[in-house]
Design a protein that fits this description.
The complex is a heterodimer of chains A (336) and B (363).
Chain A (H helix, E strand, L loop, with lengths): L12 E12 L2 E13 L4 E5 L6 H8 L7 E9 L2 E2 L5 H10 L1 E4 L3 H4 L6 H12 L5 H14 L16 H13 L5 E5 L7 H18 L2 E6 L2 H7 L2 E6 L2 E7 H6 L4 H9 L50 E5 L5 E4 L9
Parallel strand pairs in A: 3-8, 3-9, 6-7, 7-8
Antiparallel strand pairs in A: 1-2, 1-4, 4-5, 9-10, 10-12, 11-12
Helix pairs in contact in A: 4-5, 4-6, 5-6, 6-7
Chain B lengths: L1 H5 L25 E11 L5 E12 L4 E5 L6 H8 L7 E6 L2 E2 L4 H10 E4 L3 H4 L6 H11 L11 H11 L18 H13 L5 E5 L7 H18 L2 E6 L2 H7 L2 E6 L2 E7 H6 L4 H8 L33 H4 L2 H4 L3 H6 L12 E2 L2 H6 L8
Parallel strand pairs in B: 3-8, 3-9, 6-7, 7-8
Antiparallel strand pairs in B: 1-2, 1-4, 4-5, 9-10, 10-11
Helix pairs in contact in B: 5-6, 5-7, 6-7
The chains are: A alpha/beta (336), B alpha/beta (363).
Chain lengths: 336, 363
């Protein structure tokens, strides 16, 4: 927004009791239920979960990009200003310049008939109309270089680039208006392991060099463990575990988080050989959530008491970073 | 089943080196085999892309083989060639010791024995077909139902669905794909393949579009099918963790060739090819290896580099290791032989050849 609101103490992003519910013909669909999350400069916070857990709804709501039929409650503070209540002009300024989103599937997000340089220039010319043409060209050139694209890429069309290069273009676009916060929604999902490693390296380097804050959303907990400082694991719209990334991936407290981290075996671990770890059942229908803990129907540790009430996200241990580790489970930390 | 009992399977003797158990699985037992297969495509600009440039690969009954590689490595072309969907310009594919049939009639029998399960179950199922119709389609095509011998169509459909882990099957009969979860759709696809009682399933990225929690369940299903039905499985994947979870053997592909292959434990725990080593080092959860992020991507198959095809990206060459071993010139100019499809751990690499020269003990 403006310089005054970005004091050192103000987090780049703060979600307070955020809930998002979609109106559907079959009733209300609560996609996000009471999420709190804070991101500061230089910090990467991961959001892990499977399809339908609410992680992408969370991403779009930060910039008020959620569909019209969504009912939102709580607060989304971008550098201290509430995105949900701000005027249209302020919101327009906040998008791209305060925070921007890198979506998954770069192939479908780029315009196939425009040169990538023009597409990267577009947010600059729209948001900073006073910037002259030569400066825009220079900034586009710098941005493409910053994300590791070869010289001359500005004149190419999306189809002339590889999947990894297109994702780099998306990242260059997200950086175009020098935002302080980047939300990356499954930025490496369709990419090969080697290209994924290249993109994750790039994101980590940008956070370091530009002192950005980043929310990294992925279904793959192992990817998050590699890049993030802290990780939130979501299930059926709620955060069920939160803590230092290594703690969550290496020794999860919540049985769902534990199942997620086991789903990707450690190569060389004899226990995983001929023994893929899965979780029976499917996530619940959000329109008719089970009573009590929404994970209980699939939980190997579930007892009768789990079906009484949804457990709050509460501290259960001290993490490797000295902060409390949070889990929404009455049997947090127990093994099975 | 019987095939499994008749011979020890590789995973029953983990870690055993081929030298100590010769002839454990003679090559002639391979059910599906590719030898020196070359597949080319003409590009729009008139040049020729060599998607497969000499590949040997064999899958025995009851064996799970993983073909691992990035996009552009040729792994999907290999799967299509093994299905008879691409015709090699050189080399051959044989099925049970006989060359891949060419006539339509013989091809139909072959297709029953070798079934393919594609990634993205939502795109592979007909949205207007019920689960029952989807699974019954293959049974009708191959005329497998025979009421007189007690194998009614409905029984075969029910068995296929329950073999794929959809139990009880009846409530699903009249469902449409959009009414199923992602995991259920993938199981319906597998049921469709199982319905015609194949000997081998070729699964192209069977779990890549599925959620993490469902992934394990489906991989467990593939293991169970091999144990209970003696099914051979060829899995095409970019996911090394998947190979560690279920594969007996693994073949790593790069730019149209198998560059390293062998028993899964040996290849993934003691990789010998610099490409395999790099791939393993970037698997996020491996912290024992220094991540070796290769620059760039697999080159264009119309211009396969001379010498070792991996040399322009090879960290061992770039860091002078090959130079010190005296093979740098070979890396840049001497082509490597095709790796034979057997149980031995082998890598197509000049540096590895001097390190594992005859006489030196295997890794």
């Amino acid at each position: 927004m403006n310089a005054a609101s970005t004091d050192v103490g103000t987090p780049l992003l703060e979600l307070r009791d955020l809930s998002v519910s979609y109106r559907t013909t079959e009733g209300a669909l609560p996609a996000v239920r009471g999420v709190d999350l804070t991101v500061r400069a230089g910090e990467v916070v991961g959001v892990a979960g499977e399809s339908g857990c609410g992680k992408s709804t969370l991403a779009t709501t930060v910039l008020r990009l959620q569909p019209r039929d969504a009912a939102v409650t709580g607060e989304v503070l971008l550098a201290g200003a509430d995105v949900l209540t701000m005027g249209w002009g302020d919101l327009r300024a906040a998008r791209w310049a305060d925070a921007s989103i890198v979506f998954q599937g770069a192939l479908h997000s780029l315009n196939p008939v425009r040169r990538v340089g023009d597409q990267v220039a577009e947010p600059i010319t729209l948001h900073e109309p006073t910037v002259g043409e030569d400066e825009v060209t220079a900034r586009v050139r710098d941005l493409l270089e910053q994300v590791g694209l070869p010289e001359g890429s500005a004149r190419r069309y999306p189809h002339q680039l590889s999947g990894g290069q297109r994702q780099r273009v998306m990242i260059a676009m997200a950086l175009a208006c020098r935002p302080k916060l980047i939300i990356a929604d499954e930025p490496t999902t369709a990419l090969d392991v080697m290209v994924q490693a290249q993109i994750l390296d790039l994101l980590a380097q940008l956070v370091r060099d530009l002192d950005l804050g980043m929310v990294l959303i992925s279904h793959d907990l192992s990817v998050l463990a590699d890049v993030c400082d802290r990780v939130a694991v979501m299930y059926a719209g709620r955060v069920v575990e939160f803590g230092a990334a290594d703690d969550v991936f290496g020794d999860a407290l919540h049985p769902y988080a534990r199942a997620l981290s086991r789903a990707f075996p450690r190569i060389g671990d004899p226990a995983a050989r001929y023994a893929p770890a899965g979780l029976a059942g499917d996530p619940p229908d959000l329109r008719s959530l089970p009573h009590g803990c929404s994970f209980a129907p699939r939980c190997p540790l579930a007892i009768d008491r789990c079906r009484d009430a949804e457990p709050p996200l509460a501290p259960h241990a001290t993490g490797s970073d000295g902060n409390p580790r949070l889990a929404a489970c009455i049997r947090a930390g127990e093994q099975w | 089943m019987s095939a499994r009992e008749a011979e020890p399977t590789p995973h029953s003797t983990p870690g055993s080196s081929p030298a100590t158990s010769p002839g454990e699985r003679p090559q002639s037992r391979a059910f599906l085999e590719a030898r020196g297969v070359v597949v080319e495509f003409a590009t729009r600009s008139g040049s020729v892309a060599r998607a497969l440039d000499g590949v040997d690969l064999a899958v025995a009954p009851g064996e799970i083989v993983a073909v691992v590689g990035e996009s552009g490595s040729g792994k999907t072309t290999l799967a299509r060639t093994l299905m008879g969907l691409e015709r090699p310009v050189a080399g051959e594919v044989s099925v049970g010791d006989r060359p891949m049939p060419r006539s339509t009639r013989a091809m139909r029998t072959f297709r029953r024995k070798v079934q393919m399960v594609l990634q993205d179950a939502s795109g592979s199922l007909n949205p207007r077909q019920t689960v029952y119709e989807s699974v019954a389609e293959g049974i009708r095509l191959h005329r497998l139902a025979d009421a007189r011998s007690g194998t009614a169509e409905a029984d075969l459909v029910a068995k296929a669905l329950s073999d794929a882990g959809l139990r009880p099957p009846q409530p699903l009969y009249l469902r449409y794909p959009h009414e199923l979860s992602g995991g259920q759709r993938q199981r319906v696809l597998i049921a469709g393949a199982l319905a015609v009682r194949p000997d081998l399933i070729i699964a192209d990225e069977p779990v890549s579009s599925l959620d993490a929690s469902i992934r394990g369940e489906l991989l467990a299903l593939l293991l169970r099918l091999r144990d209970e039905l003696g099914l051979g499985v060829l899995v095409i994947t970019h996911d090394l963790g998947l190979a560690w979870n279920i594969a007996d053997r693994i073949a790593v592909m790069y730019l149209g060739r198998v560059v390293e292959q062998g028993p899964t434990e040996q290849v993934l725990e003691h990789p010998r090819h610099p490409y395999t080593q790099a791939l393993l080092s970037v698997v996020p959860e491996i912290d024992r290896l220094e991540p070796q992020v290769l620059r760039g991507e697999i080159p264009d198959p119309t211009r396969i580099p001379p010498g070792c095809r991996f040399h322009p990206r090879c960290p061992a060459l770039a860091e002078g290791e090959s130079e010190r071993a005296g093979v740098a010139d070979a890396c840049r100019g001497v082509p490597l032989p095709v790796l034979p499809a057997d149980d031995r751990h082998a890598a197509a690499c000049h540096l590895d050849a001097v390190r594992h020269a005859p006489g030196t003990p295997a890794s």
